[in-house]
């Protein structure tokens, strides 16, 4: 009977101390000095409906700059023929995929990369001015990270691409309760929600197109079963289980003295 009691105590402790893999890319085995190389099939960010674009046009003609930017000269008087800096104008991509640009009119940009959009706007302007220079950025490029992270939030991204690792870094990394093997990504495309899961423990993610996020993506980190069980327990139950675990440890190490 005493062996049965001791055996049950050991089982209880093992059950309460289940092991989890919390190491990113844990199957990436490298020797010292060894390199791991992979090629990502990066799908460049493409302009979507509802994107807010900040467009800056610079030409050799100050009057043209005023027309195309709806701005004012930033540095006061400028020399004739010199390029000047103006405040940027913002344009929202309509449901038809177009922006309404000054003088030029509607320009369809849906599905284009930033470079392609710059070239298309510049090509439209070449009919009116000589050698226009166009700068374009997406000002409402945001991602959201929720769930088992230390700092869940919505983040504005100023670069063309952001990886899953970078997104987790912005959110303060996962907590120890985050399920690294089952991360959910929620993406909206053409008015439809797309959901897929990624495994942060698997090195194959490094060479996957899913390694990079797109504008308005939501990254959701699920909690493991242990955290869910704790959430369902009231504080009194959790305190009782903690005390019970401590008593069980004391019994095991002092079994001979007690019995």
TrEMBL record:
It is found in: Cell outer membrane. It is a multi-pass membrane protein. GO terms for molecular function: polysaccharide transmembrane transporter activity; porin activity. GO terms for biological process: monoatomic ion transport. Its main location: membrane. Residues 142-221 form the SLBB domain. Residues 43-138 form the Polysaccharide export protein N-terminal domain. Pfam families: Poly_export, SLBB_2. Keywords: Cell outer membrane, Ion transport, Lipoprotein, Membrane, Palmitate, Polysaccharide transport, Porin, Signal, Sugar transport, Transmembrane, Transmembrane beta strand, Transmembrane helix, Transport. GO terms for cellular component: cell outer membrane; pore complex. The chain crosses the membrane at residues 237-255. It comes from the Bacteria. The keyword S-adenosyl-L-methionine does not apply. PANTHER family: POLYSACCHARIDE EXPORT PROTEIN GFCE-RELATED (PTHR33619:SF3). Belongs to the BexD/CtrA/VexA family. This is Polysaccharide export outer membrane protein. It comes from Algoriphagus halophilus. The lineage of its organism: Bacteria, Pseudomonadati, Bacteroidota, Cytophagia, Cytophagales.
């Amino acid at each position: 009977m005493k062996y049965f009691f001791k055996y049950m105590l050991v089982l209880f402790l093992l059950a309460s101390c289940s092991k989890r893999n919390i190491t990113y890319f844990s199957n990436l085995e490298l020797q010292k000095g060894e390199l791991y190389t992979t090629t990502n099939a990066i799908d460049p960010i493409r302009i979507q409906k509802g994107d807010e674009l900040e467009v800056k046009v610079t030409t050799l003609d100050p009057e043209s700059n005023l027309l195309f930017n709806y701005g004012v000269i930033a540095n006061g008087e400028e020399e004739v023929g010199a390029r000047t800096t103006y405040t940027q104008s913002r344009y929202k991509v309509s449901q038809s995929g177009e922006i309404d640009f000054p003088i030029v009119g509607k320009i369809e940009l849906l599905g284009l990369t930033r470079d392609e959009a710059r070239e298309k706007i510049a090509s439209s302007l070449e009919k009116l001015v000589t050698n226009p220079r166009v700068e374009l950025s997406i000002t409402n490029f945001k991602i959201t990270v929720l769930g088992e992270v230390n700092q869940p939030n919505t983040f504005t991204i100023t670069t063309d691409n952001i990886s899953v690792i970078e997104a987790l870094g912005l959110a303060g990394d996962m907590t120890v309760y985050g399920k690294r093997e089952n991360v959910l990504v929620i993406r909206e495309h053409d008015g439809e929600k797309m959901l897929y899961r990624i495994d942060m423990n698997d090195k194959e993610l490094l060479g996957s197109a899913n390694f990079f996020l797109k504008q308005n993506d939501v990254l959701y980190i699920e909690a493991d079963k242990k955290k869910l069980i704790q959430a369902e327990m009231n504080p009194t139950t959790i305190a009782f289980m903690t005390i019970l675990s401590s008593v069980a440890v004391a019994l095991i190490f002092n079994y001979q003295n007690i019995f």
